[in-house]
Amino acid sequence: MRSVALVALGPILLLGSARADSSGLDDLLGPREIAVGEAMRGGATGASAIGLNPAGLPLNRELVFEGGYGYRAADSASLIGVSACDSTVAAPGCFFYEYIGSSPELEGSMGNRRTHVGGLAIGRQFVPRVSIGATLKYFDYNTDVMGEDDSSGTALDLGSTFRLTQLVNLGVSAQNLWTSEKSVQFPRAAGGGLQARPIPAFTLSFDMRWKLEDEGGMRYGGGGEFFLRTSGGRTGFPIRIGALHDDALNSTYVSAGLGMTSMSWGIDVGARREVKGGDDMLVLASMRFFGPREPAPSIE
Fold first, then answer.
1. Which end of the chain is more exposed for a tag (fewer CB within 10 A), N or C?
2. How far apart are CA 42 and CA 295, in angstroms?
3. Do the Cβ atoms of 31 and 268 come closer than 8 Å?
């Protein structure tokens, strides 16, 4: 998958070295979220709901298994994730596992970081326009980087999704709202976002996220997806583009992604390139296999 990603998104993948901070807020995101500037809190479904807003799980009706791989050049990081999500049941949920291993170079010396994260995300639609969700995860962080400490424990995320109309959603969520052990790699944060689908094939979204501890800071981004279908309508090709700014890091990023989706499987590739404040680069790819799929629920 990595070779496919590098070829498909070559124009924005100019390698470089940059600051490389490990954070559970960002490391658990997949290619679809990254490609649209992390702006999916209003409409995150499947594995995308795990890291952004578990309340989005009831927005569709499908069984999907997903596996993905990512590479971040700045700290030679490998990001591996697998998940199984079922939203065809009364209480949609996902089981997931993520591994992040990196080798940052800081002040002329090499270090190693390793993170395991696993858990359960679950959502429930209480009325046609409102759903809530929670993610309970266990994390184990190990590092030999000077000045950093190992940590392990559990953390809880909460979220809610409001379907303002059939075409517009509002999502709000809080990550690591409660943790059994304080960890700088899993800080508390809160965010919200809007997603709109003015026409069936085109989706626009905008998100903001606030880090609630340490030095704080706001992160905001937006993007769009245009979904091309074949004449028979059974195969689609999503094209995604986005941008993101982090005021705490004083960094701006551009992102893009491509995909191919059929009735039984799908491939997504996404990449993000820092254009202000550094030259960080991230590439992600994932493959999905679909089980039973049903029409998305209506609010009417």
1. C
2. 19
3. yes
List helix spans (H) across the chain.
2-8, 24-27, 31-35, 48-52
Look at residues 82, 142, 95, 104 and name the one whose alpha carbon lies nearest to residue 21: 104
Residue with tokens 């949609």: 92
The 10 Å CB-count burial string (b at 16+, else e) for 85-94 is: bbbeeeebbb
Q: What 8-state DSSP symbol labels residue 165? A: S
Q: What is the pLDDT of residues 183-220, one digit of tens each?
A: 989 999 999 999 999 998 999 999 999 999 877 799 99
Write down the pTM of the prediction. Answer: 0.88
Residues 63, 45: contact at Cβ < 8 Å? no
According to DSSP, residue 28 is labeled T
> 19: exposed, middle or buried (C-beta count within 10 Å: 0-12, 13-18, 19+)?
middle
> How many other CB atoms are found less than 10 A from the CB of residue 61?
17
Q: Is residue 257 within 8 Å of residue 227, measured between CB atoms?
A: no
Domain ranges of the chain: 2-294
49: left (phi over 0), alpha (psi -120 to 50) or beta: alpha
Lookup result for tokens 């809530």: 132
Q: pLDDT tens for residues 234-257? A: 899 999 999 999 998 899 999 999
The CA distances from residue 210 to 25, 191, 207, in Å, are: 11, 6, 10
Q: Which CATH class is domain 2-294?
A: mainly beta
